[in-house]
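Example S7 (structure tokens).
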């Protein structure tokens, strides 16, 4: 197995470069002074070029061909399949495009931080145009190689095998029933909640609460940490997971739910298979599966009454201003549904509309049907159609609120709602196998849940395709009916 062994050694080297890139990228978004952005962007671009050149050298293809003739066990065959996929994805692109896109993305993301604060669409547009142009070049090259549309070629990087045709069906059905459900939920719930009164929640207290909840969720602080960034994220590597949130002293739930969400990502990363260090088989299966874990933690678990009953005393203990908070007040606020402008703060009923909006715009953008200058008007039109809100002139809370497009991550947004669908399906299967799950959650005994997730998803890495992984865990491939059932039961009680 000389060829296969040579490939694994090459991918271990690539994993070390990815490690450096991940930590440098985390530092750029959390600790780095603004004056270091240009040099850091160049350094990260250099790492991207090195990674690309090592991966696409001619000998990689030769070794893959040789390894396919060697006697490999099932895990080695799965790893070779993933090695081949990573190589094929990379070999499509010239090194010059990889470097140019990395540099343009770094410039756009760094400038976006202040431009969003300043509501400066014109400045942001100037930086986004080259990112989109380079992303279109990439999409065209990938589309030619795959025989797909440009957008589908980028979508495939995040969710292998997914197509916009399938998304159009899934999201079309979703938008068919979601607005009516949203209106029913709003009509049923109280108009105001106790936590909407003016209070101050010191950030130091919020951080202590966040870390306490992370401990409850079994986050391994020996292999990770919590920090602050302009946009919450989970980064780093599986042995050193970096999660972030952002705090607001006038309310605590957005930061807390953000931490629970990112901890879901982190638990997945921290429990990926360790017996294949540096190998693609040990990576997360797909972006939607990754999102399913964060949304399982935040939505299925974190916003349930059972979990909130366990969370309630921790909130009262850590937050002075919440000492008089009742469990009913907490549940009412956490499960309160109110369409808003900001995706990351959205309730789980209105959240999918934010995703469909972004999906429709970025698909048209990459396929060349609209231009960057068209985004604000399209955004406002779709916000009014799906959520009854306007963002006219409000770019910071409209089309400039997310970080994803700044570095050309087109094709990422659909995975949020795919992840929500997978999360509902996973929790439904868990509940069938563990009928006493709500009681265990209330008592703070989360080990059975984590054990089930570990066996079904975490320890599997990328051994199987998405469909096979989900079918083995739930008995069927993606079935969006479980998501609709979850929302209907939680918010309408039927």
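Recovered sequence:
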């Amino acid at each position: 197995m000389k060829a296969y062994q040579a490939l694994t050694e090459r991918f271990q080297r690539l994993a070390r470069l990815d490690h450096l890139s991940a930590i440098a990228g985390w530092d750029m978004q959390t600790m780095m002074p603004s004056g270091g952005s240009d040099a850091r962007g160049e350094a990260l671009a250099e790492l991207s070029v090195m990674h690309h050149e090592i991966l696409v050298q001619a000998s990689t293809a030769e070794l893959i061909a040789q390894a396919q003739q060697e006697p490999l066990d099932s895990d080695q065959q799965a790893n070779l399949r993933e090695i081949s996929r990573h190589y094929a994805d990379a070999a499509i692109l010239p090194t010059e495009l990889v470097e140019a896109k990395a540099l343009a993305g770094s410039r756009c993301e760094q400038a976006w931080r202040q431009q969003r604060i300043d509501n400066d669409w014109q400045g942001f547009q100037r930086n986004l145009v080259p990112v989109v142009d380079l992303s279109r070049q990439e999409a065209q090259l990938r589309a030619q190689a795959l025989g797909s549309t440009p957008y589908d070629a980028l979508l495939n990087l995040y969710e292998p095998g997914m197509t916009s045709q399938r998304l159009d069906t899934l999201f079309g059905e979703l938008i068919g029933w979601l607005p009516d459900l949203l209106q029913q939920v709003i009509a049923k719930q109280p108009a105001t909640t106790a936590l909407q009164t003016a209070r101050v929640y010191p950030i130091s207290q919020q951080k202590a609460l966040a870390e306490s909840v992370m401990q409850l969720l079994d986050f391994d602080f020996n292999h990770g940490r919590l920090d602050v960034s302009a946009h919450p994220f989970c980064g780093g590597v599986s042995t050193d997971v970096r999660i972030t949130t952002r705090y607001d002293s006038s309310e605590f739930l957005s930061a807390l739910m953000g931490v629970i969400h990112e901890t879901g990502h982190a638990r997945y990363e921290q429990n990926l298979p360790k017996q294949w260090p540096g190998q693609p088989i040990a990576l997360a299966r797909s972006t939607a599966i990754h999102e399913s874990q964060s949304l399982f933690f935040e939505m299925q678990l974190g916003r349930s009454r059972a979990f909130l009953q366990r969370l309630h005393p921790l909130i009262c203990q850590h937050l002075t201003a919440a000492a008089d908070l009742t469990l009913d007040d907490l549940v009412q606020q956490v499960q309160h549904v109110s369409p808003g402008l900001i995706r990351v703060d959205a309730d789980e009923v209105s959240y999918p509309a934010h995703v469909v909006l972004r999906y429709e715009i970025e698909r048209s953008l990459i396929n060349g049907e609209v231009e960057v200058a068209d985004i604000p008007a399209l955004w406002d039109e779709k916000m009014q159609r799906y959520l009854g809100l306007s963002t006219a002139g409000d770019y910071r809370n409209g089309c400039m609120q997310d970080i994803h497009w700044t570095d050309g991550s087109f094709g990422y947004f659909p995975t949020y709602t795919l992840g929500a669908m997978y999360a509902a399906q996973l929790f439904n299967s868990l509940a069938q196998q563990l009928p006493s799950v709500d009681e265990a959650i209330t008592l703070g005994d989360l080990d059975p849940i984590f054990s089930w997730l570990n066996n079904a998803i975490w320890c599997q890495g990328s051994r199987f395709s998405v469909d096979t992984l989900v079918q083995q865990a739930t008995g069927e491939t993606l079935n969006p009916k479980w998501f609709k059932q979850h929302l209907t039961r939680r918010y309408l009680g039927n």
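Notes on this example. The chain has two domains: 2-146, 165-492.
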